[in-house]
Inverse folding.
């Protein structure tokens, strides 16, 4: 009887489905058809005589044996990348697709503008940027890498701080001309406030208003920081915004300059992936661009005389 074997090509199909949980997503990554991916997974399971996935209406879910097989397949992947690089006489290979999950504000107002730098540095790397308002499950490989406000407290993850960032209350000059400038936290209660929908806040780090004043009731709420910014620029109220976003719009004025909030962005990936050359490349890139523009995250970019609030400097920090 001829012994059945599987190839590295088979493992690529397996890893693509394991990381996405969807045949269609895996097919796009591998530039092939949905049917081909399904056929290759079936063939691999037949060859190994084990069930690697449970099929259900939501997609493909790894079985316990499949979970263990991921670890082996990823080690083969890393060694294959290293060998390809050595044979080409180059440094570690940086190629493939990396899916990164990041908050809407960081993605739209910082990272997306730097895609050109990424392409220039790593022309063979493709980035999939996910900004939906939910926590992507790194444990199920829904994303390869995540930028988060609140890192996991346990689990098989590599976690490192990317940067601190500061926030302040802002309003448009037109709003302040019309409604006046609040001179204290108590006076904020007399103003229109813009904020997140309380029961849709997906990360504790976005729960700002209690830190400003426990009795603030926003008159306009949105799950989107972009919608909040747009409303603030159009004079609909005051809003807590990160420095790196608000500093891009000169019509926005800081309110109560003594009230500043501190938050943090963290990088998180599964320990199984941290040694992958493509993941290390993206982590290094993110470190570099944040360090290069560190002042954007920590300074509002305006002269203090423009801030019309009074009082001692107060910093509210979130652990």
């Amino acid at each position: 009887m001829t012994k059945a074997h599987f190839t590295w090509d088979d493992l690529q199909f397996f890893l693509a489905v394991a990381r996405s949980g969807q045949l269609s997503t895996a097919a796009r990554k591998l530039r092939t058809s949905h049917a081909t991916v399904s056929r290759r997974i079936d063939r691999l399971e037949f060859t190994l005589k084990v069930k690697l996935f449970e099929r259900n209406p939501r997609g493909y879910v790894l079985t316990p044996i499949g979970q263990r097989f991921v670890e082996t397949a990823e080690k083969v992947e890393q060694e294959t990348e290293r060998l390809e690089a050595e044979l080409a006489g180059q440094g570690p290979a940086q190629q493939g697709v990396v899916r990164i999950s990041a908050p809407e504000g960081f993605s739209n107002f910082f990272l997306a503008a730097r895609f050109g730098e990424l392409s220039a540095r790593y022309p063979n790397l493709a980035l999939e940027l996910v900004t939906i308002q939910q926590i992507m499950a790194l444990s199920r490989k829904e994303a390869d890498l995540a930028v988060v406000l609140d890192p996991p407290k346990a689990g098989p993850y590599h976690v490192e701080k990317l940067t601190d960032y500061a926030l302040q209350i802002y309003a448009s000059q037109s709003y302040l001309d019309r409604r006046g400038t609040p001179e204290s936290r108590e006076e904020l209660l007399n103003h229109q406030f813009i904020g997140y929908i309380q029961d849709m806040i997906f990360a504790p780090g976005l729960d700002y208003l209690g830190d400003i004043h426990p009795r603030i009731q926003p008159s306009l709420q949105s799950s989107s920081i972009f919608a909040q910014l747009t409303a603030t620029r159009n004079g609909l109220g005051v809003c807590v915004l990160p420095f790196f976003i608000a500093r891009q719009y000169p019509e926005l004025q800081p309110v109560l300059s003594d009230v500043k909030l501190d938050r943090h962005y963290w990088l998180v990936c599964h320990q199984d992936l941290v040694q992958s050359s493509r993941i290390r490349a993206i982590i290094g890139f993110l470190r570099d661009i944040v360090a290069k523009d560190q002042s954007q995250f920590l300074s509002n970019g305006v002269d203090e005389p423009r801030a019309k609030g009074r009082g001692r400097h107060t910093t509210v920090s979130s652990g």
Observations:
- Confidence is low (pLDDT under 50) at residues 303-319.
- The two ends are 62 Å apart (CA to CA).
- The first helix runs from residue 8 to 20.
- Residues 1-88 form a domain with the Arc Repressor Mutant, subunit A fold (CATH 1.10.10.10).
